[in-house]
Every structure is written in structure tokens, then in C-alpha cells.
Amino acid sequence: MIRRAGHWPLLLCLAALLGGCGSSGVATGDTTNGVVGSGLQGLVLRPQKPEPPLALRNYTGAQVNLRAFRGQAVLVTFVYTHCPDVCPLIVSNLAAAQRQLGPRAHEVHIVAVTVDPKNDTSTAVRKFLAERGAAGRMDYLIGSRRELLPVWNTWGVAVNVNKYEDTEAHSALLFGITPAGKIAVVYSSNFTPAQIVHDVPLLERS
């Protein structure tokens, strides 16, 4: 289990409440599922929380800083390419949502962050995205474990490595971020493309 700091208390509660890849649990927090009047279809945060720092290189080698997307809605998730269950579904559904958005796809920027620095190489990520129709549709961020640990900590992402099965148990959430850099809504891993298509314009106005 990774020691957490910074923004972790709220995000950890969300991870426990919504579950993850190979995990489950129950917790309470300052959240409401589908707040009346918000229109958002995930778990709505009241008040909204500032996005934690996030600056890494993507699988092409380009440096990506979340702050660069201020003025635009952003979706952030944590996945890995060898995931046997929810990660492929998360990435496939995000790609499907972008296709359904059509000419409005530019209204949201999608960022995926690895929880498996050992195996998520540039080649592995490129293949993973291509197989799920997500190539060119998101920034998939990679790096060394030393680079990623501070990111996992500040985002409250719990990562447990099963060295016998070469798998990871981790928080599998999707964070919806406003153009002002505030986390407004969090989705569990079973979100649908239709929910994202519905919520993107609302995130832009939040």
C-alpha cells in the first residue's frame, strides 16, 4: 500500500466509495450522486476541489502538464495496459464518448496515468490504445515509479502490486475537471459513454 499525502483524504474516500480494479469498500464523503440542479451524472463534489498537480511525459515523449488545459474540461483516470478487467473498458468507453461527441470532441481533454510503470512502455501503450480505438484521443502518461509516486499520492490513488500474477489492484476512478481546474464530478469505472457525452457541456459551464 502506498502512503498518501496532500489531497488524499477526499480522493481516498471516493476510491473506497466507488471501488476500483480489484478492490471494493464503503466510505462517506462530501459528495452527492447526481446532485439535483447540477445535471452531472456522476458523483458530484460540493464544494468542488482543486485538481492536484499532474505533470509527466506521455507515451510519445511529450511533456504534459494538467495546468496547460485550463479553459477546457478535462477527464483524468488511472489505468494500466495489462489490466485484466476494468482498464480496457474505461479506455474503450472514453474513446467511444469522444467519437459520439463528434465535432465537439475538442471540448474535453482526456488524460490517463499509468499505475504500472514497469510494464507500461511507449510500445505497450501505443498498442493498447490502438486496440481500443483510442489512439490520438488521449494523453496516456508514463514514467518511472519515482516520478509516479508523488502523483499517486496527491491524487489519492492506492496501488497494490501482485508480484505473483503480475497485476495491480488500484483505484479505478474517472475525475471530471472544470475549465477552472476544479474536480466537479467523479465517475466509477462502470460509467457509460452516454454519461460523458451528456456531462462534457455541463463541465465546461461548471
Q: What's the arrangement of secondary structure elements?
A:
Blueprint: H1 8-18, E1 20-21, E2 31-33, E3 43-50, E4 55-58, E5 63-65, E6 73-79, H2 86-101, E7 108-114, H3 122-131, E8 139-142, H4 145-155, E9 159-162, E10 167-171, E11 174-177, E12 182-187, H5 193-205
Parallel strand pairs: 6-7, 7-8
Antiparallel strand pairs: 1-10, 2-3, 3-12, 4-5, 4-8, 6-11, 9-10, 11-12
Helix pairs in contact: 2-5
Elements, N to C (H/E): HEEEEEEHEHEHEEEEH
**Biggest sheet overview:** 9 strands, mixed
Low-confidence stretches: 1-9, 15-19, 22-32
CATH superfamily: Glutaredoxin
Quick one: overall form?
A: globular
Helical fraction: 25-40%
Percent range for β-strand residues: 25-35%
Number of strands: 12
Radius of gyration from CA coordinates: 16 Å
CATH topology: Glutaredoxin
Output the CATH class name: Alpha Beta
Helical segment count: 5
What is the terminal-to-terminal distance?
A: 34 Å
Widest sheet, order of strands: 2-3-12-11-6-7-8-4-5
- Report the mean per-residue pLDDT as an integer: 83
> What is the SS-derived class?
alpha+beta
Q: Report the CATH architecture.
A: 3-Layer(aba) Sandwich
Count of the domains: 1
